[in-house]
């Protein structure tokens, strides 16, 4: 516990050295990783193989479906919608779209939050640096740091903390966010494949 307390004090000292902007960036970082974590867990595809093969597997299993990942749930609900449309002799395409729509919303959840934080973090970090530099030069003007070169360098160094933290927040978020966006795009294509395969099933 004592070691944790020491580390906590060091963390608080570093954060306070950069001013209130550091805490803002820290909060944004927590939100960013929450959003990334949610998207990563949600966008797990599950069963490997083509969409057509996945549909065939679910049809063969019947009520004994095995749900491994996101796409398994989409296929299962799409098949239920298809059967419902078939039962009432309606065109299945709209029924299947309705079944897939909640999953399309789920796959895009927190994407906007991630992109917004990735764009904002460097700008907020730059704002903190500008504020820190202004404080440093104000101190120079009042001669309170005039005879202390180390203090000047220290003041500038502290001012740059926020820019550094802003980049630390943004760069991993940008990279991982792009990877997850690609997975979301892949799901969108697979959703369309599910609709097309099931909608034209009775035409064969």
Low-confidence stretches: none
Largest sheet: none
Percent in helix: over 70%
Number of H- or I-type helical stretches: 7
Listing every helix as H and every strand as E from the N terminus to the C terminus, the arrangement reads HHHHHHH
Structure characterization notes:
The model has no long low-confidence stretch (mean pLDDT 83). The chain has one domain (20-204). The chain has helices at residues 2-17, 20-42, 51-61, 70-87, 92-107, 111-141, 149-199. Helix content is 81%, strand content 0%. The chain is mainly α.
Main features:
204 residues; mainly alpha; 0% strand
Q: Quick gist of this model?
A:
The chain contains seven helices and no strands. The protein has helices at residues 2-17, 20-42, 51-61, 70-87, 92-107, 111-141, 149-199.
What is this structure's SSE topology?
Blueprint: H1 2-17, H2 20-42, H3 51-61, H4 70-87, H5 92-107, H6 111-141, H7 149-199
Helix pairs in contact: 2-6, 2-7, 3-4, 4-5, 4-7, 5-7, 6-7
